[in-house]
Amino acid sequence: MNASRCLVVALPAEARPIIRRFGLQRLQAPHPLPIHAGGDFALILSGVGKTRASRATALLARLNEHPAPLWINFGIAGHHSLPLGQAATARQITDVEQARTWTVEPVAFDDIPVVECRTVESPVSRYPDNAIYDMEAAGVATALPPGHALRILKIVSDNAASSTQRINARFVRELCEARLDALESIAFEDPA
User: Fold this and answer.
1) How far is CA 14 from each of CA 8, 105, 118, 153, 176, rounded to the nearest angstrom?
2) DSSP letter string over the chain?
3) Which of 14, 63, 95, 121 sees the fewest Cβ atoms within 10 Å?
4) What's the Cα-to-Cα distance from 121 to each of 14, 19, 126, 138, rounded to whole Å?
5) pLDDT tens sequence across 29-38
6) Can you list the domains of the chain with their CATH numbers?
7) In angstroms, rounded to a whole number, what is the distance separating the alpha carbons of residues 45 and 175?
8) Are 149 and 61 in contact (CB under 8 A)?
9) Are 172 and 157 in contact (CB under 8 A)?
10) What angle do CA 168, 6, 19 make, to 5 degrees?
11) Backbone angles phi, psi at 155, to 5 degrees
């Protein structure tokens, strides 16, 4: 595999729209996690949480032969006030439990706000800062050596007005399908 774009995605409902859009095929070699690849893309399905995301990122990095791929962590996240379905990208990732921070270089787009991403151990219902709250970004950042290009693209699935209780596979798939344009823009860094 020689993918110039490596995606780390936690949930099958987040991955399915990407797999369809880019025509990715499941690799048949025995791997501990599902990996899909095709063209410029490789996608690994990590499962939920930063530990799983870190392991998945390390596995895909070992298997991919491209010397300098762009890494993208795509999925859902919470935010205090951004509306459901809004895409957001991160300029900084903070592991809330470990108090560790990584700076990433987001690409500026007219309709995608740039905020901090705070990685938490479990879903939260309070969002005290102008940040997106996820469970995987810090795991991806941890597994990559310094100097690797990393982008975070999250779709708001819950906020102060709509709790995590309404999140189900169909809802997540619909949110992600609706923002594949943002993923393509991030993947090919074509700012609007």
Assistant:
1) 10, 23, 19, 12, 6
2) ---SEEEEES-HHHHHHHHHHHT-EE--S--SS-EEEETTEEEEE--SSHHHHHHHHHHHHHH---SSPEEEEEEEEE-SSSPTT-EEEEEEEEETTTTEEEE--PPPBTTB-EEEEEE-SS--S---SSEEEESSHHHHHHHSPTT-EEEEEEEEEEBTTB-GGG--HHHHHHHHHHTHHHHHHHHTT---
3) 121
4) 19, 27, 14, 10
5) 788 999 999 9
6) 5-187 (3.40.50.1580)
7) 18
8) no
9) yes
10) 45
11) -110, 130
- Tokens at 57, concatenated: 């990122």
The amino acid at residue 92 is: Q
User: Tens digits of per-residue pLDDT, 151-172?
Assistant: 999 999 999 888 888 899 999 9
b/e sequence 138-154, b meaning 16+ C-beta within 10 Å: bbbbbbbeeebebbbbb
Name 149's bridge partners: 70
